[in-house]
Amino acid sequence: MEILVMGGTKFFGRRLVELLLEDGHNVTIATRGQTSDDFGEKVKRIKIDRTDQSSMKRAFADQYFDVVYDQICFNPREAKIAVETFSNRIKRYVFTSSMAVYGHKETEIVERDFILEDYKVNLDADDYAYDEGKRQAEAYFFQHAAFPVVAVRVAMVVSGNDDFTGRFDFYVGHVANIGTAF
């Protein structure tokens, strides 16, 4: 399959690209071009400004993909750009969202706690908190996309040796310190 990964050079996007290549797919990575990768000639690369409609339309003018994995959409304006850019050019869109769309709950989370089809989208906000940006982006995709969309609501992302965020070390250290507190 022809697969586009937007944001495929760091963290779990990088691992996604590795797995797609292992499965024999033709992979294109779209990024700002600021982070190098070691995929060599195994992937195609497209430089984009994810926040600029004209940059996206130019970059993908003659491109067709079976699947787009979007690791770098954080608000409804970016979702709108994607919907307008990829209309009639893809078979499926996989949006990396977050469990943060549910807000902070003390009880069990169920999918119906966030009804994205009814959620009011605001394209005019100056800025969005992470959770609200993901809510707004999901709602925009599901309300406006002419292509099938899947939203993967990841709870917490940690990684191994390539975890540049320090999350994995934080949690390991936290668990280790709890053991000494008792």
Describe the structure.
This protein is of the alpha/beta class and about 180 residues long. It has one domain: Rossmann fold (3-Layer(aba) Sandwich). Helices cover about 35% and strands about 20% of the residues. Strands 3-2-1-4-5-6 form a six-stranded parallel sheet, sandwiched between helices. It is globular. The N and C termini lie far apart (about 55 Å). Belongs to the NAD(P)-dependent epimerase/dehydratase family. One of its GO terms (cellular component) is cytosol. Keywords: Carbohydrate metabolism, Galactose metabolism, Isomerase, NAD. InterPro entries: Epimerase_deHydtase (IPR001509), NAD(P)-bd_dom_sf (IPR036291). It holds the Pfam family Epimerase.
Please summarize what this structure is:
The protein has one domain: Rossmann fold, CATH 3.40.50.720. The chain contains five helices and six strands, in the order E-H-E-E-H-E-H-E-H-E-H. The chain has helices spanning 11-22, 53-59, 76-86, 130-144, 167-181, and strands spanning 2-6, 26-31, 43-47, 65-70, 90-98, 149-154.
Instruction: Please mark out the parts with pLDDT under 50 across 5 or more consecutive residues, or reply none.
Output: none
Strand order of the largest sheet: 3-2-1-4-5-6
* Share of helix, binned: 25-40%
> What is the ordering of alpha helices and beta strands?
EHEEHEHEHEH
- Ends distance: 53 Å
The coarse overall form would be: globular
Structural class: alpha/beta
**Number of discrete domains:** 1
Beta-strand portion reads: 15-25%
Oligomer: single chain
Looking at the structure, the CATH topology is: Rossmann fold
Please give the CATH class. Alpha Beta
In CATH, the homologous superfamily goes by the name: NAD(P)-binding Rossmann-like Domain
Cofactor: NAD(+)
GO cellular component, one term: cytosol
Keywords: Carbohydrate metabolism, Galactose metabolism, Isomerase, NAD
Protein name: UDP-glucose 4-epimerase
